[in-house]
UniProtKB/TrEMBL annotation:
It comes from Massilimicrobiota timonensis. Residues 310-348 are annotated as: Disordered. This is Terpene cyclase/mutase family protein. It comes from the Bacteria. CDD domains: ISOPREN_C2_like.
Length: 379
């Protein structure tokens, strides 16, 4: 009889455990973890880490950019160099004696394609980074490049990697780039791309092309496009499926230290690409596109200084740092306001610890009553 009574208590605990599950991270907690991860990062392994760090408001100007990361072999690598230098607080028109903006604009072809003559394997992904960089510097050729990007859309609405491989992540990037340059002008192209993306959204709100389930990389890149194009819609649940939010799906891949794991490496296993893309998208949820931040930082640089042969800091660095610190302070204030607003709008993963405490208290009281009754019965 005692065994039966014990089994009943165990069953009660299991039932109550399902009613009051283990706490999940709130959105604010997830954002804080992502920021802490990059605040504790001592050195950069890739330019994407700089972009992700700046996306969540962790300024990088006090950390060194390894020179080997600033590549000039392709136009898209020049574009990424422009992006990270601007976010880092440097002038891409005069860094170590090189004008990277002029170099990128020299790669723009008459039809708007952006690549050097000797480049191989040119695809939508390459063009996208170039369009992003041209937007950041306010180039008068940004729409010419964006026109060519829009022309690269496939009949089904997909954008592709070099080699013609359709990809949800690249399509998300394209939506972001076109939205930044001129959302109204490129609305038909964006809508076609949106239709393609949403056709691969599953019942759990994950985006999956191949039937293996959602992965952090694809989920992050698609959401980056959606948040840039329609942030209010994402936060209002426009893209939910069966009460599941696609942003919650992304956060399910976040590790306890703020990094991300990938389906390719296994649950809980750190993955660099998943981390930079996941954290960048978390930044988008709170702060908007990091390329908008870079554009404002570029405008703050003012007129270009004379190109010098000495690979030293530009003459106007003090003013740049002052402007960057002011911008950073304003952004932190904005982020605080956004975080306070976000915490008031709890989504699927947000929890209430006080309600769980009450639930567990009732559980233990009930268990005690059952135990006393059981003992009286057994005696």
């Amino acid at each position: 009889m005692k065994k039966i009574f014990t089994c009943l208590l165990v069953m009660l605990m299991l039932v109550m455990g399902n009613i009051f599950p283990i706490a999940a991270l709130t959105y604010d907690e997830s954002y804080t973890l992502a920021k802490n991860y990059f605040q504790n990062l001592s050195a950069f392994q890739s330019v994407d880490e700089i972009i992700a760090s700046e996306s969540v408001g962790v300024e990088t100007d006090q950390k060194v950019i390894p020179e080997e990361l600033l590549a000039t072999d392709t136009a898209s690598n020049v574009a990424k160099t422009i992006i990270v230098l601007t976010l880092h607080g440097n002038d891409p028109r005069n860094y170590n004696g090189v004008n990277y903006v002029e170099l990128l604009e020299s790669a723009i072809q008459s039809d708007g394609a952006v690549h050097f003559e000797n480049e191989n394997g040119f695809g939508s992904n390459n063009q996208i980074f170039c369009v992003d960089a041209l937007y950041i510097v306010g180039s008068d050729k940004q729409e010419l490049a964006a026109d060519y990007l829009a022309s690269m859309i496939q009949d089904n609405g997909a954008f592709t990697y070099a080699g013609g491989y359709e990809d949800l992540a690249v399509t998300g990037w394209a939506i972001e780039a076109l939205s930044l340059v001129n959302q109204e002008k490129y609305q038909p192209t964006i809508q076609q791309a949106m239709t393609y993306i949403l056709s691969y959204q599953k019942e759990d709100a994950g985006f999956d092309m191949y039937g293996y389930g959602a992965d952090a990389n694809t989920q992050a890149c698609v959401l980056a496009g959606l948040l840039t194009y329609d942030s209010a819609g994402v936060k209002a649940g426009t893209y939910n499926q069966n009460e599941h939010n696609p942003y919650d799906v992304l956060l399910s891949f976040q590790n306890s230290d703020g990094s991300f794991w990938s389906s390719f490496t296994g649950e809980g296993q750190y993955n660099l690409l998943a981390t930079v893309q996941g954290v960048q998208t978390i930044g988008y949820y709170y702060n908007g596109s990091v390329y908008q931040k870079a554009h404002q930082a570029y405008l703050a640089l003012g007129e270009v200084t004379e190109i010098e042969k000495e690979p030293e800091i530009p003459v106007e660095e003090d003013q740049v740092k002052e402007d960057k610190e002011t911008s950073s302070t304003e952004m932190q204030n904005d982020n605080q306001t956004k975080e306070e607003s976000s915490s008031q709008k709890a989504d699927v993963v947000q929890t209430d610890d006080s309600s769980w405490l009450i639930g567990y208290s009732l559980l233990f009281i009930g268990s005690g009553i059952l135990l006393l009754k059981g003992r009286q019965y057994l005696e």
